[in-house]
Amino acid sequence: MSRISVGPGLEAAGVFILLFMGIIPILEEFNGIIYWGGSISLDEKVRGSLWLIFSALLMSIGYYLPFKNVNFYRFKEIVYSKYDYLRIFIYILLLSYFPLKANNFNIYNFLLKGGELTSDLLVNSKSEFLMIDFFIRPLIFNLGLAILFFSQVHWLKKFFLLLIAIFFAFPTGIYRFLVGILYIPFIYIIFLKKKNTINFKYKKYFISSFLIFSLIFIFPILEIFRNFTFEKYDDFTIGIEYLMTGHYDAYQMFLHALQTDSPTFGYGFLGVILFFYPRSIWDSKPINSGMEVAELTNLSFTNVSMPIFGEFYLNFSYVGILFGSLFLGIIFKVFDKNFTSDLRLNIRSLLYMQVSGSIVILMRGGLLSEFAYVVSIIITWLVIYADSRIFK
Question: Nearest 5°: phi and psi at 197?
Fold first, then answer.
């Protein structure tokens, strides 16, 4: 069997396992940290760690299994003329009304995630909030990206629309995981662009190094803007200390998942797949797995993560971990083979770049919410592509 190189999908998954399931648990153990008032015995830690090692091995086996690759749809090239630029500009103007109105035209709501300068959203339902924050604002941003890379207009016009797009998805004014998803194409293009292609072999281990740096240093800085104030931040932490503040609780939540013994036999995954189905109609729609485990194990905090290996266990017990890990490796192989088969800078590569930026978030979980957010990002690119084909 010929060895295939590691692509951005498996590399990101490797970062998650190394950091969330390796380094951070060691730091927590040496410092005697257990989050949210939980209780985890030494035997449970040993058993859980062995299952994680086995899961990582199975994922690698799945990645290197020889099988015919599944080729995704190949998008046709997009080239925007000056007339297309005007149309996209009108789209952005029309779309911008909805987030502006929902935020009461308060510009601080777009520059800061929360705090004393921001105001409450003027939305009538959670669905409206999700539509604005996780679809319309990313759509505006991606329209700006499309103009930047695919239009033939003067660079000043590109820059003008890009500024508008960035305003509606400003790094300090959106959720941190969205920052990683939306802005990662800039990082790839700046550091990995060679001629007109994205060369992942150009700088070995760049992706993993950048992800680790972001999780340790960039995310703590973004944390400040979640509740911004002009007062002194006494509890601000960065670097290694930030890794032990509960934000990266995936390992311990996996162990808490193993403390439960009531597999849903796929019902939890059904909720993930049918995320768009409203809870008002589906009364028994599954809740976030992390929240469910937190309630079952009597944790003091329920807004927690649930790593993908925990999702496998909660749905199909230990059999789920075995076959789920193997299947996860196959998914990463299909993703990476499609990602690296066409390295030209086009709409396909931009979509893949943003999806690759979501892998750590998806593996951290909970899957019910994170999967829906990633799908919404994919849909923005499908909308942009469909528009380009209609007006070609």
Answer: -130, 160
